[in-house]
Amino acid sequence: MDKNIVIIGMPGSGKTSLGKKLSEKLNYHFIDMDHYIEESRNRTIASMFEEGEVVFREEEIKASQELADTAQTVISTGGGIITQEASMKALKRNGLILFLDRPVKNIEKDIERDSRPLLKDGKSRLQELYEERIELYRLYADLIVENVLDEDTVVEAMAAAIN
Ligand code: S3P
Question: The domain spanning residue 111 has which CATH number?
């Protein structure tokens, strides 16, 4: 199977670290979309947010369209990708969407050391975002894997869900 595996989920849910491990296990390429956007636009996500969230979302849609024709790639997305139908449509074209669901209380434990724009308002904002987004994560997901155990076990569960 050469479809991409597109990982969606809240900021701090483990999309990048577990996605990278999954790509190694499957012998797939790996792309972190936030990193891809920053590298290809030669600017930081924080600077886009300073101009307005919409500036970032437009770049995110374009990046999703640019990546739509890749194959055999694990793509970890930014937590808000599900807010843009155009992004999800593009990524779904050759992608299986995997929602990595990690409880907010577990994510909160890591937040203090984080500098991502939408996390800077702190814990209550994260819970609010989760409540705003959960229906969309579930709507777009082809597969849902809970991230509540150690990394290797969760990567195993992700690989098993795909096959
Ligand atoms: C965002 C999450 C970030 C990044 C941007 C917006 C969000 O990615 O795309 O700051 O809206 O939740 P991570 O989920 O990797 O933190």
Answer: 3.40.50.300
Closest by alpha carbon to 4, among 127, 22, 16? 22
User: Based on C-alpha coordinates, what's the Rg of the chain?
Assistant: 15
Sort 39 into a burial class: Cβ within 10 Å, 0-12 / 13-18 / 19+.
exposed
Range of the domain at 39: 4-162
> Binding site residues for Mg(2+), as ranges?
16
Average pLDDT score over residue span 9-26: 97
Task: Please give the tally of structural domains in the chain.
Answer: 1
Q: Probe ligand 1: pick from 116, 132, 133, 137, max atoms within 8 Å of CB?
A: 116
Query: What pTM did the predictor assign?
Result: 0.93
109 versus 150: the higher-pLDDT residue is: 150
pLDDT at 14: 96
Predicted complex: ipTM over 0.95: yes
Q: Tell me which H or E stretch contains 156.
A: helix 151-162
What is the mean predicted confidence (pLDDT) over 104-131? 73
Ligand 1 in reach of 11 Cβ (< 6 A): yes
